[in-house]
Amino acid sequence: MTGSMLESLDAHAAERPMALALDDFSYAALRDASLRVAAKLREKGLRPGDRLAIYAENRPGFIYAYLGGLRAGAIVVTVNVLYRTSDLEHILSDATPSVVCVSAQSAQYVSPQDGRTVLDLADIEAWAHDASIVPPADPPAIDAGDGAILIYTSGTTGRSKGALLTHGNLAAIASALVEAWHWTASDTLLLTLPLFHVHGLGAGLNGTLVAGARVLLRERFDAPSVVAALATGEATMFFGVPTMYVRILEQARDGVRFDGVRLFVSGSAALPASVHEEFGRRFGVSILERYGSTEFGFALSNRYDAPRHAGTVGFPLPHVEVRLADPVTNQDIAPGMAGEILVHGPNVFEGYWRNDAATAAAFAHDAQGRRWYKSGDLATFDPQRGYVINGRLKELVISGGFNIYPIEVEDELLRIPGIRAAAVVGQPDAARGEIPVAFVETDEQFDAEQALDTLRERLASFKVPKHLYPIDALPRNAMGKVEKPRLRELLAARQQR
Q: Which of 121, 208, 214, 448 qualifies as a FRET site for 234, CA 20 to 30 Å off?
């Protein structure tokens, strides 16, 4: 394992300078581009420890700014390009970047203020190709313990917090995936995930650079073009979120094959078992599901060379420790019981940016004094199949003393014809504390009573939703994860009427 992403980039550039790294850009060219951009950023006043924000869609300039910022010793802040005034202002005021990189699409939402420099990624792309730029002879020394990136949590459970990951964290995250997924220099990854997220950046880009492989970067996910690209056989790997796999199933005509793709990975939200099974039936491919978080990158994965069971996220990645604990006492739970996932390893972040209270609350300590990150996710463990995610601790529905895991009910709902998407939440109830209800995206001919009758045959009575609320589209964040707080707001509004 290397000490930083930059070491990996430089090593591959030295050993295999003409090997392709980014589209048709070689490793030597990418290294030189990062050095040139770092030099220009220093000219613009960026200093080691300063924050450099990137607020843009996927494009080569994003990667040049990211690598150049790291080389300049800055902490790179990746900002969701879908954020607008409120969310954007929160991140910029919290991270206080001295430089903000924007694209033509995002520039209108950012203005120079308080000494902040705003740079167009088009200029950064020009710097990357300008051979007349001479990097300084005294580049900042980069230590594995130095802050590398700030990624803000999605905010689905409150105001987003900046998770500070070090250069060592990034190297550990990527190296574990390279080892676990047999990632080699001969691989090509089709990357449509947003680079502002740990899935796209920490797995997709950084994993590619550690492996010495190639990435084909796309601005966004477009199902028809992704199906066409995967069918050519040029890409050997594809990473996606569950909604992407649903769209691929919808778009791929009968007879389409993805024989050149050796690995499909899903994450960022639970992959419905029905989608996993249909993908295998249609394409002869078993999707590998993994489990991760902004705060530690990735911790669990189905094994590459073993059966992948629908609904499971496998076993700990190399060099990562995982255990299940009681959410209150932090003590290990009995075998077979559900507990909160705790994570320890070189991949785990340092803490939340300028938020000591949140950092302290995020960790538990064992008898040896080691810190374990408290994920807030509930899971069970099967020695043969691995870990099964039951859902967020805050999403657990407790009805009349019974625990109801929404993900279990949602999976059964998705098996019912006519239901395209479903989300289960708790609705306050005077007698039982709360009752499970479901918001569903449905076809026009959907029969709610018939659906509930089907669920009563498959689930314990207390798990069956008491109401099915039709909704045109479930609210989702940029990674396709359902924003359940917004659904609870809809419930509250219904009860007030």
A: 121
Tokens of 335: 């075998």
Paired sense of beta strands 99-102 and 117-120, if any: parallel
Dump pLDDT digits (tens) for 428-439.
Answer: 877 777 888 999
- Residue 57 belongs to a domain: yes
User: Residues 342, 330: contact at Cβ < 8 Å?
Assistant: yes
**Pick from 6, 47, 45: nearest CA to 142:** 6
Task: From residue 171, give the alpha-carbon distance in Å to each of 1, 19, 51, 148, 281.
Answer: 7, 21, 20, 11, 36
Cα distance between residue 197 and residue 221, in whole Å = 14
What is the full DSSP assignment across 214-239? EEEE-SS--HHHHHHHHHHT--SEEE
Q: What is the pLDDT of residue 2?
A: 58
Question: Domain holding 478: CATH number?
Answer: 3.30.300.30
Q: What are phi and psi of 426, to 5 degrees?
A: -90, 135
The pTM assigned to this predicted structure is 0.85
3-state secondary structure of 287: coil
* Integer Cα distance of 54 and 161 in angstroms: 17
| pLDDT for residue 496 is more than 90 | no
Q: Residue 456 in contact with residue 437, Cβ under 8 Å? A: no
449 sits in which H/E element = helix 448-458
Per-residue pLDDT of 184-208, as tens digits, reads 999 999 999 999 999 999 999 999 9
**C-alpha pair distances (Å), 297 with each of 164, 215, 386:** 11, 19, 19
